[in-house]
Design brief:
This is HTH_Tnp_Tc3_2 domain-containing protein. With 143 residues, this protein is mainly alpha-helical. It folds into two domains: 29 residues, no CATH class; 77 residues, no CATH class. It is 43% helix and 7% strand. The radius of gyration is 29 Å and the shape is elongated.
Length: 143
């Protein structure tokens, strides 16, 4: 059969699909038996907020943490990533740093070390509050 080689599937899969089409005139999978999912698609839309904690989601939907983990990871394709703090230099900060470095270099070249004051302080501001111990962000796999 050329179909199985072109689609990279086994011959048995092609045989089953052809047989199903001849019996039922459909190609889709038959409906599955078993217990339905505890979280349906309307509730999955609520999960789109990727900064919400899974513990809060579990208490809101009344399902087990394991079920929530399976739904978030396997069904929706999200993975919890830790948020990292990084210091990003903006253009204005780069220009300011360059100007200060030029002034400092001119002072050093003129041997005026008595005018140089060295302090061991650094002030960093972060826009959002982030606790790196328990903050996770749900993103698609590969990000």
């Amino acid at each position: 059969m050329l179909i199985d080689k072109n689609l990279c599937v086994t011959r048995m899969t092609v045989h089953r699909i052809v047989e199903r089409y001849q019996k039922m005139c459909i190609v889709k999978d038959r409906p599955r038996s078993g217990r339905p999912r505890s979280l349906n698609t309307s509730h999955k839309n609520i999960l789109r907020d990727n900064k919400i904690l899974r513990r809060k989601l579990v208490s809101g939907f009344n399902i087990s943490p394991r079920s929530m983990r399976i739904i978030v990871k396997h069904d929706m394709g999200f993975h919890p990533y830790k948020i990292r703090r990084v210091h990003v230099l903006k253009e204005k900060m780069k220009v300011n740093r360059y100007e200060k470095a030029k002034i400092l270099l001119s002072i050093v070249l003129q041997c005026r070390f008595s005018n140089v004051l060295v302090r061991n302080e650094k002030i960093l501001t972060v826009n959002s509050v982030c606790n790196s111990q328990n903050s996770r962000q749900l993103l698609r796999n590969g990000y």
